C-alpha cells in the first residue's frame, strides 16, 4: 500500500489545465439548430459550449439534444432544424468553474460531465476543462508517487 501526505501533492489550478476560449468550438444562443449541428459535426465533438452575444456562458448543446428534438412520431424531421434556435434545446443547468478553482473541484464536477466550462465573475467564457486532461494529470501523479514509494 502506498501512502502519501496530501500536502506533498501540489494540485494545479483550473487555469493551468484548461483549454483557452480561443481554441474552443462554440455556438451562440440565437443560432438556428442546423448551424449548431454543422458546428458539432465539423468539429467532431459530441457537445460544445453555448455563449451569448457578449461572450457569456449560457449552457451546453449536444448532438443528441438536437436529434431528440427533431425526432417526430415516425422519423427525424430534419427540415425543422432551421425553425428552432439553440436556446430551445440547450442544457442551461450545467455546472461551471472559475480559473482559480483547484483541479480537485474540477475532478468532482467531471464525474458527471465530459467537460466543464470555465467563466469569470461576470460570466464571461474563459475556456473548458476536460475529463481527459484531469485523467492524464492523475495518471502523472500516480506514476510520480509510485516512483517515490
Ligand atoms: P476530451 O476529453 O478531449 O475527449 O473532450 C471531452 C469533450 O469536451 C468533447 O467531447 C467535447 O464535447 C469537449 N471539447 C473538448 N475539446 C473541445 C474544443 N476544443 N472545443 C469544443 N469542445 C471541446
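Q: What amino acid sequence fits the structure above?
A:
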Amino acid at each position: 500500500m502506498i501512502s502519501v501526505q496530501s500536502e506533498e501533492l501540489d494540485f494545479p489550478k483550473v487555469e493551468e489545465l484548461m483549454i483557452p476560449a480561443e481554441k474552443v468550438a462554440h455556438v451562440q444562443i440565437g443560432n438556428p439548430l442546423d448551424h449548431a449541428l454543422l458546428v458539432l459535426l465539423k468539429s467532431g465533438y459530441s457537445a460544445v459550449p453555448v455563449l451569448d452575444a457578449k461572450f457569456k456562458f449560457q449552457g451546453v448543446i449536444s448532438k443528441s439534444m438536437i436529434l431528440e428534438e427533431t425526432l417526430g412520431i415516425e422519423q427525424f424531421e430534419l427540415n425543422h432544424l432551421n425553425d428552432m434556435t439553440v436556446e430551445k434545446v440547450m442544457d442551461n443547468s450545467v455546472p461551471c468553474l472559475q480559473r482559480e478553482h483547484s483541479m480537485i473541484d474540477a475532478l468532482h464536477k467531471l464525474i458527471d460531465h465530459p467537460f466543464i466550462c470555465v467563466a469569470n465573475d461576470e460570466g464571461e467564457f474563459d475556456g473548458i476543462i476536460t475529463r481527459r486532461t484531469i485523467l492524464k494529470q492523475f495518471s502523472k501523479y500516480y506514476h510520480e508517487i509510485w516512483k517515490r514509494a
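Q: And what stands out in the fold?
A: The chain has a mean pLDDT of 91.
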